[in-house]
Amino acid sequence: MNSYIIHFTTYTFAMIGFIVLALYVYKKAIIMQKRANIKNFLNIENSLRISASKTIYVLKAGDEKFLIASDPSNTTLLAKLEKNNTVTPTIAGNNLSETELNAIRKLAEKANRG
Questions:
Q1: Quick check: pTM over 0.70?
Q2: d(CA 43, CA 8)
Q3: What residues contact 46, with CB distance under 8 A and at least 6 apart?
Q4: How far is CA 40 from CA 33, 60, 62, in A?
Q5: How far is C-alpha 78 from the geometric centre of its chain's CA atoms?
């Protein structure tokens, strides 16, 4: 009788351990799959350095493209790039030089072609 209780307890703990291990592996697989989906969602398609501290990026988020300017102190959404080769500007009153505006236009045209 004593031997039966020991075997029963041992097998019960073994099955509980197996179930916990299976749940742990399942949870890790789900988390890795979500991370892979997030990494594929947001991509930097192109970048253009305007000055030593300013860079313009074309970001693709899902099916949409955005033109973003970045420097060490902030990041600004410049425009949404449409599929029909048009740019929807979102700049309102920003102090951009003519060189920066030309660089934005070139990058937007290049992103819409590709």
A1: no
A2: 54
A3: 57, 58, 107, 110, 111, 114
A4: 11, 10, 8
A5: 19
